[in-house]
From TrEMBL:
Pfam families: LRR_14, NB-ARC, RPW8. Keywords: ATP-binding, Leucine-rich repeat, Nucleotide-binding, Plant defense, Repeat. The keyword Ligase does not apply. This is RPW8 domain-containing protein.
Length: 825
């Protein structure tokens, strides 16, 4: 008892000091902090009396005091979070303020209840020696420590860490199966990084697919490395065509502690990387997929305490102080990795032809990526299938001295055996820039348009490619839900697999190829293309990746069969290619700007003749001004605007949207910062079935005419913190099936007449901190089947509704914060 009393007394004292600081610093938490100060000042003398009396309470009273101690300890932790929270983080501060209010209520309830009377009545009873009780606590502590030690998993790490390792299974497969080789590599590189003061730039070198990035990633997770650099580790992917200024800005911002710096306003002189500085804390920079010594030299900051790991396929003659070359897998390691992928176990099953398996493993030449991809392609296939694969692998001849080219020839076997549509979808992945996340919305739309499949089949193909290790899905917790937004899901692909897709697509005559792809960014159109412009290009997919383009930079090219055009650029101004107006079959147009600022699109009138265009994706551009003279896009079904400046593009006084987009069914705004109010002209698009407004932090108003969208089935208002009310007209959306208002942290209530939404099946209202009550009409939502919310007061109200509606499922969500999208920009 004395131990608990002492603990509670010290926590109360520390908490009192912290609350004074909070009252001075945080305006949102000031009221709660002041009330808590008053309560704890009243409570502290009672705790001190118990503490110094040496008196033990009864079991019931002691349990109450234990609960108080736990409440104060939580308060101490909460106070630390409040003091550490940055003022600009409005969302987090609102959460903390609400938690402070709950803590205040808890302490007040304790004081106003019977606890004081019980403690004062029993304070002079049942005395024991303090030392005896301390010994008892010490023994319990030792036993508890032993039990916690027994809960460790593997070689250490707790359950939470084990869960993370499961989520990162792609990297940990090699660690599990080839631990000896990986551990040896880690040991050698660690010695170079932290054991040698003179090695400020260390290289991890090896051919594509050999596990270089896996080794670098494991080093970043290593406890000794993390401790040595005090968690100051930055991992960046450079790629073949990097935005060097943007990368320099990120690195310097991380080193200097000013991570808000951008490449347009660099706060360091251009020559700083060439000289050594004697300042800065210990920092580790990891540069993955470096292709050029000239790029590397611009990204190295030789400062005391700053170390750089360079991951590359190439042996640079200069720039590296030390290097480690990743070794290929030994025979036993290769067999274990292949068997795990092909059979789900580390050894060959008894019923299988051992000689055949060994021959296939031998053909993979110890390359981890080849072992995984080929193993996944053969999984669950009959033995005759394996025999055919072995013969094709054995016939793969080296067409040049490059080991990687030979790898591509051998890995092609895994693609040749795919079903035709799945194979075509894999080859389409080469159309996107290397080392960039591919939004699933783009892939799904593209595949639906050109392969004559529906969205469900397209998603199934994605999963199949992922299961065969031909791409990696970056999954959102809602991925695969019938109403999930594909904005939240993306795909990534190993650069060797992208090279494989390009290698297989670039067969035959250039003008006859089904896919015409620029593999990396260039200043303009490739010369090889220009030499062939006298004949039409028969490509179905055209993908270009350039810098800033002017009208005179575009040659006249003929694409009579093109159905998908992907324009990747890095510029402030981009003149759309004139040949767009002569692409009669174009169904999907994707324009993505990877520059530091929003690009202005010129030559927008080329859209005039796009009669068959069905899908339009614009990213990080200024949306062109529409007007009454804009030609109607009669077949356009879907528009996605990501990181765009909207301006007056949808001004109802200047444009008649229903006339321009008569069949539009899906409209999405994502991270559009200048979207303050949804234009009322959108409410006239009667064909609209899905309206998605996500991460638009300045959206504060929705039009009152929203109820005119009588065909609307999906309304997504995710992460719009400035939005505080929903218009009453929303209750007129009788076809609405899904409503998402999650992370609208200032939304105060649901509409009073929400019960009129007779078709509503699902509501997502996670992290809606200001909604404390439900309108009575929710009981009239006869189609409602699923509610997603937080574990707070609102969840209990929904639980009460659930009791009267047996078909309703109320799901309480785990907290999840993710700003990974920022790494791309």
């Amino acid at each position: 008892m004395v131990f608990t009393d002492l603990f509670a007394g010290e926590i109360a004292t520390e908490l009192l000091k912290m609350l004074v600081s909070i009252s001075r610093k945080s305006c949102r938490c000031k009221s709660s902090a002041d009330n808590l100060i008053t309560s704890i000042e009243e409570l502290l003398p009672i705790i001190q009396e118990i503490k110094y009396s040496g008196v033990e309470l009864s079991a019931i009273r002691q349990a109450q005091l234990d609960r108080l101690s736990e409440t104060l300890r939580e308060g101490l932790e909460l106070g630390g979070k409040v003091l550490a929270s940055a003022r600009w983080n409005v969302y987090k501060n609102l959460q903390l303020a609400r938690k402070m209010e709950k803590l205040e209520k808890k302490v007040a309830k304790f004081l106003n209840g019977p606890m004081q009377a019980h403690v004062l009545a029993d304070v002079h009873h049942l005395r024991f020696e303090a030392a005896e009780r301390f010994d008892r606590i010490d023994g319990s502590a030792r036993r508890l420590e032993q039990r916690l030690e027994s809960m460790k998993i593997g070689n250490g790490g707790w359950m939470e860490e084990a869960v993370k390792r499961v989520e990162l299974a792609e990297e940990t497969t090699l660690e599990t199966l080839c631990g000896a080789g990986l551990d040896l590599g880690k040991k050698k590189v660690k010695e170079m990084v932290i054991g040698c003061e003179n090695s400020s730039v260390v290289g991890i070198l090896g051919i594509g697919g050999s596990g270089k990035t896996t080794l670098a990633t494991e080093l970043c997770r290593d406890d000794e490395i993390r401790s040595y650099f005090d968690e100051r580790i930055l991992f960046l992917t450079v790629s073949q065509t990097p935005n060097v200024e943007q990368l320099r800005a990120k690195i310097w911002g991380f080193i200097s502690g000013n991570e808000a710096v951008d490449s347009g306003h660099l706060l360091f002189p251009q020559w700083i990387t060439q000289f050594e500085c004697k300042t800065g804390p210990r920092t580790l920079i990891v540069l993955d997929d470096v292709w050029s010594i000239s790029v590397l030299e611009q990204l190295i900051f030789r400062m005391e305490g700053c170390k750089t790991i360079v991951v590359s396929r190439f042996r640079f003659s200069t720039g590296l102080d030390a290097s480690y070359e990743v070794e290929l897998l030994r025979e036993d390691e290769a067999m274990a990795l292949f068997c795990q992928t092909a059979f789900g176990k580390k050894s060959i099953p008894r019923a299988w032809n051992e000689a055949l398996v060994k021959q296939i493993v031998e053909e993979c030449k110890g390359l981890p990526l080849a072992l995984k991809v080929i193993g996944a392609s053969l999984r669950d296939q009959p033995e005759m299938y394996w025999v055919g694969a072995k013969k094709r692998l054995s016939r793969g001849e080296r067409i040049c001295e490059s080991h990687e080219t030979k790898l591509l020839e051998r890995m092609a076997i895994s693609v040749d055996y795919l079903p035709k549509k799945v194979r075509e979808c894999f080859l389409d992945l080469g159309s996107f820039p290397e080392d960039k996340k591919i939004p699933l919305d783009i892939l799904i739309n593209m595949w639906v348009e050109i392969h004559d499949i529906d969205e469900e089949e397209a998603f199934a193909i994605l999963v199949e490619l992922s299961n065969k290790n031909l791409l990696t899905l970056v999954k959102d917790p809602r991925a695969g839900d019938i109403y999930s937004c594909y904005h939240d899901i993306s795909a990534t692909q190993h650069d060797v697999l992208r090279d494989l897709a390009l290698h297989l697509s670039n067969q035959g005559n250039l003008n006859e190829q089904k896919r015409l792809i620029m593999p990396r960014r260039e200043s303009g159109v490739p010369r090889e293309w220009e030499r062939n412009i006298d004949q039409p290009f028969k490509a179905q997919i055209v993908s270009m990746h350039t810098g800033e383009m002017k009208e005179m930079d575009w040659p006249r090219m003929d694409f009579p069969k093109a159905e998908v055009l992907i324009l990747n650029c890095l510029s402030n101004e981009y003149f759309l290619p004139p040949f767009i107006d002569d692409m009669p079959k174009l169904r999907a147009l994707i324009v993505i700007n990877y520059g530091n600022s929003t690009a202005t699109l010129l030559n927008f009138p080329v859209f005039t003749n796009l009669a068959n265009l069905r899908s339009l994706w614009l990213e990080k551009v200024c949306v062109p001004q529409l007007s009454s003279t804009t030609a109607p896009l009669r077949n356009l079904r879907k528009i996605s605007l990501v990181l765009c400046k909207i301006g007056d593009s949808f001004d109802p006084s200047m444009v008649d949207l229903p006339q321009i987009f008569p069949r539009l069914s899906e409209l999405a705004f994502d991270h559009c910062e200048d979207l303050f109010e949804l234009p009322s002209s959108i409410c006239g698009i009667n064909s609209l079935k899905s309206l998605s407004i996500t991460n638009c932090h300045n959206l504060c108003n929705l039009p009152t005419e929203l109820g005119k969208l009588r065909c609307l089935q999906i309304l997504r208002l995710y992460a719009c913190p400035a939005l505080n009310t929903l218009p009453p007209g929303i209750c007129e959306l009788t076809c609405l099936k899904y409503l998402d208002v999650s992370q609208c942290v200032n939304l105060r209530c649901l509409p009073d007449e929400i019960g009129r939404l007779v078709s509503l099946e699902k509501i997502d209202m996670r992290e809606c901190l200001q909604i404390w009550n439900l309108p009575p009409s929710v009981s009239s939502l006869r189609s409602l089947r699923h509610v997603f919310c937080d574990e707070d007061d609102i969840s209990w109200l929904w639980k009460d509704v659930e009791k009267t509606k047996p078909e309703l499922h109320v799901q309480v969500a785990d907290k999840c914060y993710n700003i990974d999208w920022l790494k791309e920009y």
